[in-house]
Design a protein that fits this description.
- The chain is an alpha+beta fold.
- Helices cover about 35% and strands about 10% of the residues.
- Strands 1-6-5 form a three-stranded antiparallel β-sheet. A three-stranded antiparallel β-sheet has the order 8-12-21, with no helix packed on it.
- β17 and β18 form a beta hairpin.
Length: about 575
């Protein structure tokens, strides 16, 4: 393994200060109970390592999501009139102009490397003590270390490390091309000590054997990219680390362990995976657990960011009119707009369907936001939203406009910051300057929106109870289908894609019709199908790189150079030490 070693203790401390975000308060919710703040306790050390999953890193739009999605055709955050300019910090990802001084990149690096540090601390703490769960907790800590390290190597090509079992160990910088093999071996070695999900008080929020299988499949699927980041094409048929088969054989092996276990089932209602109460749903393998409390930094950004400010699930909360998708991704669904993963209508308890097409007059006010003093809950439809939008109007009194018989009146909606502009979400973006993702105040309605994640009306843009799936069964089928396809096993790949398509059903409004099976599968179709299943789930950048799509131009995104496949090491980290070498293209 290629490593850069730093032996000065003073320099190690400096790097840990610069490369890693500041320490978090260990007085937090851990696993299933509130623990004290004594970091010497094994459960608290493990808690701190888990905390970084859901404290911004994998749940906030400005962290891993920004780097994995805003730099793709699946998501962008344009400047909208007077909003979301922010010095261009969001536009740079769509326009591919980011540099080492970009704050969003630095925040993501800090949070990921903080996760590495907290995992190392947990390993060191547990190794020095004897307690009944030692083997299990050590394995979980090492699994989390591998998970954070993998994502850091994926995004930045380098990752900090310090051996937690060696006193006064030197600081090391892992390099992706060599580190990926050692990382795979480390996770494979953990499996005997990990619990099966549901055993030993574990659940999908814990790093279990099944989480390890998901991570190993992910690492093998992307190993060829790690090995030769800037290649014109990748060698997906390389021999596996242990010499048994190829990388794709290993992907098939580990995904088949999950698919064939019987522990997980595909949801017929695709959007149940992204509901407020999705904890423990049957597809969930490994998640960033979120709870509506102040003990850990849960976040509703994935739902809050695309919703317009005049779209109000309750009189107390609203969206923010920020992120959207490109027309390229929207129209990739051509011929599949009836796919159950594209859109789903909401039905109220009295049978009323919210159609969102101008035919709605009212919906019942019997759905109530929990712990809100009786505020009515208006349910928007789910999926990708385009065209004129409808919903409740908020009166100056702070209440929804109601009908004479006490129902919520449904109106044609206008944008909040341009009250004469209809809330007509246009798939086309049509920027005035084709090279800049900037809208005027008269254009803030543009961009189809993703309502995949359920908005929590009790907490608005604050905390959320939506667990963010890091590995779920639908994604596992996608990984196996891709591995089959890369091995030339098209029949098997098509079968997996069709399992996904036909397991999802439309709502009762359409007689619970299942999705349609495909007759054939080529590379373009496979690429699109993975997008249909996994959009806005922090996967698109990796997918685009594997399929050779990442450099292509699309709306306001120019043809880019291969060096953009990874991000720069933040300038603050580079300024603090010469341990890191800046990535190609960012010097």
């Amino acid at each position: 393994m290629t490593r850069t070693l730093v032996k000065s203790k003073k320099l190690v401390c400096t790097l840990l200060t610069v490369a890693i975000a500041g320490c978090t308060n260990l007085e937090e919710k851990v696993i299933d109970e509130v623990l004290g703040s004594d970091s010497a306790k094994p459960e608290n050390a493990l808690a701190a390592a888990y905390n970084r999953l859901s404290n911004a890193t994998f749940v906030d739009h400005g962290n891993v999501f920004a780097l994995q999605e805003y730099a793709t055709d699946e998501a962008l955050l344009p400047t909208r009139g007077s909003d979301w300019g922010d010095g261009g910090r969001w536009r740079v990802f769509h326009e591919f102009t980011w540099g080492p001084d970009e704050g969003v990149i630095a925040t993501t690096w800090n949070n990921l490397t903080h996760g590495i540090t907290q995992s190392l601390t947990a390993i060191s703490t547990m190794n020095s003590q004897d307690f009944p769960e030692k083997a299990l907790f050590l394995a979980e800590s090492k699994g989390l270390l591998a998970f954070y390290t993998f994502h850091t190597l994926d995004l930045f090509g380098q990752a900090p490390y310090r051996d937690p079992l060696v006193e006064d160990a030197p600081f090391e910088v892992l390099q992706a091309a060599e580190a990926i093999d050692a990382l795979i071996q480390q996770v494979e070695a953990l499996i005997p000590d990990l619990a099966n999900v549901g055993e030993q008080s574990t659940h999908p929020g814990r790093f279990t054997k099944q989480a390890a299988y998901g991570l190993l499949a992910d690492m093998y699927l992307n190993r060829a990219v790690f090995k030769d980041r800037y290649a014109n094409s990748f060698n997906f048929s390389e021999q596996a680390v242990d010499g048994n088969g190829t990388d794709m054989d290993k992907v098939i092996h580990y995904t088949s362990e999950l698919i064939g276990s019987g522990q997980f089932q595909l949801e017929s209602n695709y959007f149940r995976n992204f509901d407020i109460d999705n904890a423990g749903r049957p597809e969930m393998i490994f998640v960033a657990s979120q709870d509506n409390n102040t003990l850990r930094g849960s976040d509703s950004d994935l739902a809050y960011m695309p919703m317009e400010r005049n779209q109000k699930p309750s009189p107390a909360n609203r969206g923010t009119n920020a992120s959207c998708i490109t027309p390229e991704f929207y129209y990739s669904w051509e011929g599949n707009f009836d796919d159950p993963r594209f859109h789903r209508h909401y039905q109220y308890d009295d049978g009323t369907w919210f159609m969102n097409d101008g035919t709605d007059v009212s919906v019942p006010a019997t759905s109530i936001v929990p712990n809100s003093g009786g505020l009515p809950w208006f349910h928007f439809n789910r999926g990708i939203m385009a065209g004129q939008q409808y919903g409740p109007t908020l009166l100056p009194s702070g209440t929804f406009e109601m009908t004479a018989d006490g129902r919520i009146k449904v109106n044609k909606l206008y944008c909040e910051k341009n009250t004469t502009l209809l809330m007509d979400f246009t798939p086309e973006l049509n920027f005035d300057n084709p090279a800049q993702s900037v809208f005027t105040q008269a254009q803030i309605n543009r961009g189809a929106r993703v309502f995949k994640w359920e908005f929590d009306p009790e907490n608005g843009n604050g905390t959320s109870g939506v667990d963010v799936p890091l590995y779920r069964l639908g994604g596992i089928y996608c990984m196996r289908a891709e591995a089959y396809f890369r091995k030339g096993m098209t029949v098997e790949a098509l079968a997996d894609i069709n399992v996904l398509r036909t397991s999802r059903t439309r709502e009762a409004l359409f007689d619970n019709t299942p999705g349609r099976a495909l007759d054939a599968l080529d590379e373009k179709t496979l690429y699109n199908e993975i997008g249909y299943e996994l959009y806005w789930e922090l996967n698109r950048r990796k997918q685009m790189i594997r399929f050779g799509k990442f450099e292509e131009a699309y709306t306001a995104k120019p043809v880019s150079e291969p060096f953009r496949r990874i991000y720069p090491i933040p300038q603050a980290t580079m300024d603090a030490s010469d341990a890191f070498t800046q990535n190609e293209g960012y010097q």
